[in-house]
Write a structure and sequence with these properties.
It is built from eight helices and no strands. It has helices at residues 3-14, 18-43, 47-55, 63-78, 83-103, 108-112, 114-129, 131-139. Helix 2 packs antiparallel against helix 4, helix 4 (63-78) packs antiparallel against helix 5 and helix 5 runs antiparallel to helix 7 (114-129). The longest helix is centred in the first third of the chain and has 26 residues, at 18-43.
């Protein structure tokens, strides 16, 4: 096997199959819908959302700011050229949610880890649909 053949074979291994890409797309859409719902409820300042955010220790005026930041993260995550950067931004945003839930002493599995589950799904969806991310992960081995 020549070096050119092995390089070509490694490049084709990185390309997701049709089922993998579709699964990644479905996971991404589900994550998007969940987070879009969260950011819209913050942007329109639903009373229940404002009350819940205040109970977590944040001032009420920060609710639309949080919604706008989440919307920006989602947009960056859904643009193919910036999707990895968007996933990093979403992970940071969701890490803040974990911190707020820990500070409020909420139950571990129902509340504290919920943003972690969303972040894992966001990265899984991106990995399954993105040849560039697959190549990055595989080249780091």
């Amino acid at each position: 096997m020549s070096p050119d053949t092995s390089a070509a074979s490694a490049a084709t291994d990185v390309r997701p199959g049709r089922a993998s890409a579709r699964t990644g797309l479905v996971i991404t859409i589900l994550v998007d819908l969940f987070l879009l719902f969260d950011c819209v409820t913050k942007l329109i300042q639903l009373p229940a959302v404002v009350t819940g955010t205040v109970q977590l220790g944040f001032p009420a005026y920060t609710v639309p700011v949080m919604g706008a930041l989440l919307l920006i993260c989602l947009i960056v995550y859904n643009v193919p050229r910036t999707a990895v950067f968007g996933a990093v931004l979403l992970t940071g945003y969701l890490g803040g949610a974990v911190c707020a839930n820990v500070r409020a002493e909420l139950p571990l599995f129902g509340y504290v880890l919920a943003p972690v589950y969303v972040a894992v799904l966001a990265w899984l969806g991106l990995y399954l649909r993105s040849p560039a991310l697959r190549q990055l992960v595989r080249s780091s081995r």
